[in-house]
Amino acid sequence: MSWNDERVELLKKMWGEGQSASQIAKELGGVTRNAVIGKVHRLGLSNRNGSGGTATTAGAASDTKAKAAPEAKTKAKPTAPKPAPKPAPKPEAAVEAPPAPAPVSRIKAIIPAGQPLPPQPSANEIDPAALAKVSEVEKKAKRLTLMELTERTCKWPVGDPATPDFWFCGLPVQSGKPYCEAHVGVAFQPMSSRRDRKR
DNA sequence: CCCTGATTCGC
DNA sequence: GCGAATCAGG
After folding, report:
1. CA separation (Å) from A105 to A56, A80, A108, A198?
2. Domain-by-domain residue ranges, chain A?
3. Protein-proximal positions, strand C, CB < 7 A
4. Contact A65, A32 (CB under 8 A)
5. Which of A20, A117, A124, A189 sits CB 3.0–4.6 Å from A59 for a disulfide?
6. What does the alpha-carbon distance between residue A167 and residue A198 come to, in Å, rounded to a whole number?
7. Stronger pLDDT, A130 or A184, i.e. the higher one
8. pTM of the complete model beyond 0.85
């Protein structure tokens, strides 16, 4: 496979959207993420400029890569303000809210085979987008049983534990979190809507 | 271990 | 120019 115009464009597009190299490679097919990264660099669009903030959805592993540039990098673009096209019309990647000083991110999420299941879409009002994502993801869920869960499978429970069709998502977890990306989205909602319940 | 991007260097 | 191997980090 070679880099057609189309392929390069798709690469640019996806990279611009913040997609990870591996995702792009998967989409393109016939290339590895290394190839994608290499191409990205050759094209000179390595830094994903961002003015608005944290728009990284499925990847932002490394960022503090100031590193020690051994040689003088020949990256000259002094007069290239770049309008920083950040359209991102995709409503898909916008589930996280920055202002969350709440230290609520310490759920042990062990799921003690019983009742204390912290999350669970009930009478809650969560981000519609996040919920949509979840229900979409649940189609692809692995439907694991409790025993099949591992450290890197999403432990999001689906269904009623007192019912034969109760299973866990089982998709690959985000990173150290107990859930896959979609479920992390609804599990760790940093409070936004419905903040004051009746009291 | 999973993942991420960055760099190097033979091709 | 290309990308596997390697590196460096989360």
Report:
1. 19, 40, 9, 24
2. 5-43, 128-187
3. 1-6, 8-10
4. no
5. A20
6. 33
7. A184
8. no
